[in-house]
Amino acid sequence: MTRPDPDRLADKKLASHVVDGGRLRALILELWQRTRMDWGFVTDRLSSTFRKETWVGAHERRFVGETLYGLVRHLRRVDAALVRGRKTTKAPRDLERLLALLVLEKLIEPARAAQLERDLDWNAVATIDDVIAAERKPVERIALAASLPDWLAARFVADWGDQAEALAHSLNERAPMTVRANLLVGSRDELAAELRKHNLETSPGKWADTALHLETRTNMFALDAFKRGAMEAQDEGSQLLADLATGGLTQAKPIVIDLCAGAGGKTLAIAARLGHRGRIIATDVDKHKLEELRRRARRAQVTTAQPVQLEAGAWPPALDALRGKADVVFVDAPCSGIGALRRNPEARWRMREADLATFAARQTEILDGAYALCAPGGRLVYATCTLLRVENQDVIDTLRANRPDLTPVPLTDVIGERAAALGTGSTFTVTPLHHGTDGFFASVLRRGP
Asked: Buried (b) or exposed (e) across 217-247, using 16+ Cβ within 10 A?
């Protein structure tokens, strides 16, 4: 006999409290209304709220977070359900949306919702998925089922064909909590053993030997292993990108440039792969992110990373001096972030289709600078966390047309036998559907002599 999931039972109890009213319902509705104002990052909104609302316990925090994420992830599906259940033409109200989500997630029965909102046929609301599944037009069906803007569903169909629907659904799932074992401190097995002593269950990643999935819910930032730099929060696909930058490098002291380093997640992963060899120049336009990189590097015991701030106009001397000298130039380019919708589902509502051309133009511009930094025979790695061709292969095609001396590097030369499952030729693609990771694209190129 299957044991009832205690978290599920607790969620049902809290959902019932939400129907009854009170401050938990008020908090969720307030968060939802604030989120819709600008579609800002849900994680930021939740963390700032929980710092102030100290009355919210651990399980309530999880319930509030999952409910808010659910409203963002399933907005079109929820609204379609309300249209199906409405007896009159009327715009959906936020309380109705909240109740509809709880019904669709089977946390409350339709009859329970009807006690609060009698003007809706809640049995009709509960069966919206059957109606959506019967839609014969793929774009319309995917847009409603996975709650995507029409233009994004159309892009998925155009770029991914028969895989589009399953991919869209996989991007709507909850992402796992994954950490990277810092090889400068210890191995993945040593980290897993340490966490096990604290009654935290883990499972190893399938693709990266540094990836560890935390199966037990916990505040990982409060763990001693995090505080002393033994691990960093990082998706397994993101960890694999560091392998593309470092795999197969033979130089004793390589020069690596992380051109869009941000707060340094991949910089630190690259540094850990290289041990204490060489130097890593980590550049970004945001000085606050670079300050965070410095703090993280100290905690991670990374001594080879040098943050360099970029400003409009000429490169700073520290970067300009490296023209044509870098063994590896790693470009994790600004992009639409479509591959990370599991973690940042609100991005679908912020983004406009017209933004894609702007991203592609900026990505091409950044790659021109990356090419100038790359030494003859050096490696250029272009990576994004999007799964749209316009920001991925189309950008690479433009780059190679402009720089014919760039040649593809076979993935097998970089990541060995894993290449067969992670890409084709010189092109790397991982998805939540096929690999259980966030969605990433990368292309590995070599500059001619």
From this structure: eeebeebebbeebbbbebbbbbbbbbbbbbb
- 329: which strand partners? 257, 380
For the question of residue 374 being annotated catalytic, the response is no
Cα separation of 198 and 119, whole Å?
50
What residue has token string 């490098």? Answer: 249
**What is the structure's pLDDT at 1?**
47
**10-residue mean pLDDT series, the chain (449 residues):** 69 90 94 95 93 89 95 97 88 95 96 92 97 97 98 98 98 95 97 95 97 92 94 97 94 95 96 95 95 97 96 86 97 97 96 97 96 97 98 98 96 95 94 98 96
Q: Which CATH superfamily is domain 236-447 in?
A: Vaccinia Virus protein VP39 (3.40.50.150)
Distance CA 445, CA 380 (A): 5
Cβ contact 184:275 at 8 Å: yes
CA gap 304, 24 in Å, rounded: 47
The two structure tokens encoding residue 278: 């060489």
For position 4, what pLDDT does the model report? 60
pLDDT of res. 241: 96
Match domain 177-233 to its CATH number in 1.10.1790.10, 3.30.950.10, 3.30.70.1170, 2.60.120.430: 3.30.70.1170
Pick the closest to residue 58 from 282, 218, 239, 246 (CA basis): 218
The domains of the chain are located at 6-134, 177-233, 236-447
Q: Determine which one of 260, 335, 374, 385 is catalytic.
A: 385
Q: Show the tokens assigned to 396.
A: 């690479």
DSSP run (H or E) holding 390: none
Q: Which of left, alpha, beta for 431 (phi over 0: left; psi -120 to 50: alpha)?
A: beta
Q: What is the pTM of this model?
A: 0.94
CA distance 119 to 122: 9
Cα angle for residues 180, 183, 184 (degrees, 5° grid) = 125
Contact 117, 91 (CB under 8 A): no
